[in-house]
Design goal:
The protein is of the alpha+beta class and about 80 residues long. It has one domain: 2-Layer Sandwich (Translation Initiation Factor IF3), CATH 3.30.110. Helix content is about 25%, strand content about 25%. The chain has a four-stranded mixed sheet, covered by helices on one side. Helix 1 links the parallel strand 1 and strand 2. It starts with 12 loop residues before the first strand and ends with a strand. The relative contact order is 0.25. Pfam families: TusA (PF01206). Belongs to the sulfur carrier protein TusA family. This is UPF0033 domain-containing protein. InterPro entries: TusA-like (IPR001455), TusA-like_sf (IPR036868).
């Protein structure tokens, strides 16, 4: 647990998509999701505001689990995806 009581989430793979704009963070996620096993957690770090919509939509279309959003160590938004298939 973190000091504020939220779960400490450690991804199996973190994708640094800082500076990338739509649709590149989702393209990178699609390209790299196969690098982890089923059940593993992938984090997509990006400040692109479209990712708040794009990543969950991609998960729905691809049968993956959108876990939610938190922040990377530097405060950048981090979108968490669990590989389901």
């Amino acid at each position: 647990m973190t000091p504020d009581g939220t779960p400490d989430v450690t991804p199996d793979l973190e994708l640094d998509c800082r500076g990338m704009l739509c649709p590149m963070p989702v393209i990178e996620l699609a390209r790299r999701i196969g690098d982890v096993g089923v059940g593993a957690l992938v984090a997509v770090v990006t400040a692109d505001p479209a990712a708040r919509v794009d990543v969950p939509a991609w998960c729905r279309m691809r049968g993956q689990e959108y876990v939610g959003e938190d922040a990377a160590g530097d405060g950048q938004p981090r979108h968490l995806v669990r590989r389901s298939a």
